[in-house]
Amino acid sequence: MITCEEQSRSNSFQVNPFQSDLARANSTYAAYQNRKLTLLGEPDRLPSAFLVEAHQALRAAMLEPQFSCVGAKAAFNSGQYRMGAYRSMTESGSLAGLAHDLSLFTAEQTRMDSDFTTFAACFEGPHSADESEFEVHLWEVLQSLYDVDRIFNPPDPAVTADPESGNFGFSFAGRGFFIIGLHPASSRLARQFPWPTLIFNAHYQFDRLKADGRYAKMQTAIQAREMRNQGSLNPNLSDFGSASEARQYSGRAVEENWQCPFHVHQQEKI
Prior knowledge:
Elements: H1 4-14, H2 21-25, E1 30-33, E2 36-39, H3 49-62, H4 70-78, E3 81-88, H5 92-109, E4 118-125, H6 131-149, E5 170-172, E6 175-182, E7 197-202, H7 203-211, H8 214-230
Parallel strand pairs: 3-4
Antiparallel strand pairs: 1-2, 1-3, 4-7, 5-6, 6-7
Helix pairs in contact: 5-6
């Protein structure tokens, strides 16, 4: 007998538009449930060795007592996160698998019983030599996701597609996301991780936190931890709406005249 929860999850898989053979072959959409990492939709298939290793490392990093992002800690403490692991940020198969899995996450996220949910995409490579190289790869991934998604989904109306706007948010499957990049060469201690990784946090969660006053308290706690751990704050950090959040995605302290390499169609710059 199929439970309501199982039927709901099955429906989310059926409506996913990214169902090519390439996408499905590279899908690794996983959840940590009952102290076990499971591939959702394919529970009989074992996670790859890389997915298991990356998950263990990411979970350990997020749950480190001194880790600065208290929202991420809440998601990993409660198990309200999903993860995928892929071969390369520059490989078409990996990006197809990521599009498939991120679409699954947006379908499932609204049913997850938490205001702190997140999706992590971890890649085996490439291992960037410095922050600028990682930044290039990050925006190439986001550009690829955007280009294929706009065929099927309109952007989230709560955010703006123009990366120069103070209301910019990366939109996928109709949902606005704030992206956090992690990689070995990051100058920010909280963003150092053995493999290049993109964390997708939904904008609507920030809106809820702001509405009930929790966001300001979280921001204060994060800044205090950053000062304690590194002795400084990332100069690109700013409140949503005062400057484009695109400047924050890679973690690099971008120049004042930095131009985001992300390109949108003119009619979407509203």
